[in-house]
Amino acid sequence: MDIVILIGRILFGAVFVGGALGHFTQTAAMAAFTESKGIKPGKLAVLGSGVWMLTGAALVIVGAWADLGALMLAVFLLPTAFLMHPFWNERDPQVKAGEQIHFNKDVSLAGAALALFGFFVTAGAGAGLQLTGPLFASLAG
């Protein structure tokens, strides 16, 4: 089962590595979009969130404090869903549908990240070929 957990960590984290790389390679366009949502300075927010995502994803993938990495991703995703993709404010049906898809994706990935957080904390270092045990092991009860 350890290899299945490792593959799952890699697949889950890869989404965020790709997203983070987009933050670094499409900074200007993403900063303009970010500022259109009222978040300023956009460039700093885009680069900072890219570093945050990449760090969280790397922790999950390599299994070094994977619980912290999963929590970081959830902390990124939930505000992003509400701040960047408020589909309820859109009037154009196509734009609204696109924003609702992004919102739902972010919320569902946040749920998965929180589930992984709980898994990593309760399973400890023994599951999934991790480099370290959980940072939040004391929460395991």
UniProtKB/TrEMBL annotation:
GO terms for cellular component: membrane. This is DoxX family protein. The chain crosses the membrane at residues 6-24, 44-65, 71-88, 109-129. The keyword Translocase does not apply. It is found in: Membrane. Keywords: Membrane, Transmembrane, Transmembrane helix. Pfam families: DoxX. It is a multi-pass membrane protein. The keyword Membrane applies. It comes from the Bacteria. Its main location: membrane.
